[in-house]
Design a protein that fits this description.
Strand content: 25-35%
Strand order of the largest sheet: 2-1-6-5-4-3
Helix content: 40-55%
Number of strands: 6
Largest sheet: 6 strands, mixed
Shape: globular
Order of helices and strands: HHHEEHEEEEH
Length: 170
Amino acid sequence: MIGYRKVLIARGATLAMAVVLTLSTGCGKSTPPLDREKLREFASDYAIAWSSQNPARVAACFAPSGSLSINDAAPAVGREAIAAMAKQLMTDFPDLGVKMEELSFFEGDIDFHWTLTGHNAGPEGTGKAIKISGYEEWTLAPDNLIATAKRYYDEPEYQQQLAVGVARSK
């Protein structure tokens, strides 16, 4: 009977350890650096990079093999592809501005909330002003650059603003 009890205790300890490991790893999500203030500074710099009209500056925020996807579309992978994606947005919106609204942390998730403003004044643009908010889910690389960014925003609202501009508030 004593041997059986030891096996049950050992199995229980193994299960408890597995639960603790699963909870502490956030199901494979990256854990933010211990210094959250430095991560907030990085996020602020990232918003400034998007506003800089310098696509290479945006790409430099990503790990060399990092990726950026928008609304679950196929991702741009690698700094060159990310720079090309940034360049297209910067061309479409020569006065592009990105403001960091919030950086949130929950169980290993890092969410960068932003607001994008500008006029669609690039080639073939509508000339309309837009103001759209969204967020990115980040996974960080070991060097604390972005390994993956999954960007989400309201695509129908964005298309509406491209057609008629930002709705005027009363």
